[in-house]
Specification:
Layout (H helix, E strand, L loop, with lengths): L2 H10 L7 E4 L17 E5 L10 H8 L3 E4 L8 E2 L20 E2 L3 H12 L2 H9 L1 E4 L3 H4 L11 H11 L16 E5 L6 E5 L18 H12 L5 E6 L7 H5 L12 H14 L4 E5 L6 E5 L7 E5 L16 H10 L33
Parallel strand pairs: 2-3, 3-6, 8-9, 9-10, 10-12
Antiparallel strand pairs: 1-2, 4-5, 7-8, 11-12
The structure holds 2-acetamido-2-deoxy-beta-D-glucopyranose (2 copies).
The site of one 2-acetamido-2-deoxy-beta-D-glucopyranose has 5 residues, from loops.
Length: about 375
Amino acid sequence: MGRSVLELWLLWSVVMRVMIALPIAYSASSTSSQEALLVSRIAFGSCANQSAPQPIWNAIIDFDPQIFIWLGDNIYGDVRHPFKLFGKERTIGPWKNVPRFIPSSEQEMQSRYKKTKTNPGYSRLLEKTKVIGTWDDHDYGLNDAGKEFNGKITSQRLLLDFLDEPQDSPRRKQAGVYTSYTFGPVGRQIKVILLDTRYHRDPLFSDGSILGSSQWTWLESELKGPASALTIIGSSIQVISNLSAITGPIFYLECWGRFPKERERLFKLIADSKRDGVFFISGDVHFGEITRYDCATGYPLFDITASGITQAVEKAVPPPLNFIVRFVAWLAPTTMRVMGQHCRHKSCTYGDWTFSRPAKFWSN
Ligand SMILES: *[C@@H]1O[C@H](CO)[C@@H](O)[C@H](O)[C@H]1NC(C)=O
Ligand SMILES: *[C@@H]1O[C@H](CO)[C@@H](O)[C@H](O)[C@H]1NC(C)=O
């Protein structure tokens, strides 16, 4: 694994706005005696408004993933007040007098999860696919919230209920929803590490911690533990993108780039672990993107963002104006975005539902 494999994969793959699938071809010649099923199709996505139509599940089911990974904003659990510059309830400007987002009750969160869980498309996916996941801010309970949010213990229970986490799972007893899985037979194992970027996160602009000390200790033992052919690190927020460094004072997205010390620590841990075949997957931003960083380890690190099961930047404006959003995205000078020959529009936004084409991950 490593450079050539990831680059080959990249060459063949295209970002889609709503989700990305990772196809891994079976190796016909292998006569593995392992019981564990070779995992060849993983799909992932994020940002799903439970009250909006979710037709994307049909496209995901057609792809027949063996595993689906939720990367957060699995529901929009908080209450959003409309933008209001004037009037009694002003939500923006220095003169704002009510918060734009407030948490909702446990019952309300529960009923929103139920809406998604009973969505006909998602229910159908659940029948055949192992679904795992982590959270981002809106299913954690509040826009941009971190460790200070006092609904987090309840929110953790609600997410784990939604994901059908067994009642006796250690994940229900720890502080935060981070966890890991290993799929596939020995020699062709895929390790999936899901981070919690909320429960322990220091305030924005603090350059403090995202993961908190207990999660760091755990992550270190995960990365330094038994080798796997591939290691996928799922983070709700983008790890590699530097977009906010450029759009800075005008607008910020949440990302690891806003906690530079924490991001350095992550890159250094991956390098020190000598682990091969590590890459990131992320969500949150309402567009799809591939970013790449060459200077962390002996091989390039990729971050593949799939965001927008229902939320998409292009949809924020009426259809005739979609091209403007695409144009702005294309202009935005994020230094770490991959501009592959095979990326349509050479831009981060992706208009059509598209699946990556098969690539040969396992050479023999
Ligand atoms: C979710 O969808 C509903 C129905 O279309 C809409 O009213 C609501 O504003 C949406 N919420 C978010 C967070 O996009
Ligand atoms: C990314 O942004 C950080 C500052 O947040 C900067 O130090 C670093 O050089 C940037 N990297 C690139 C490649 O632009």
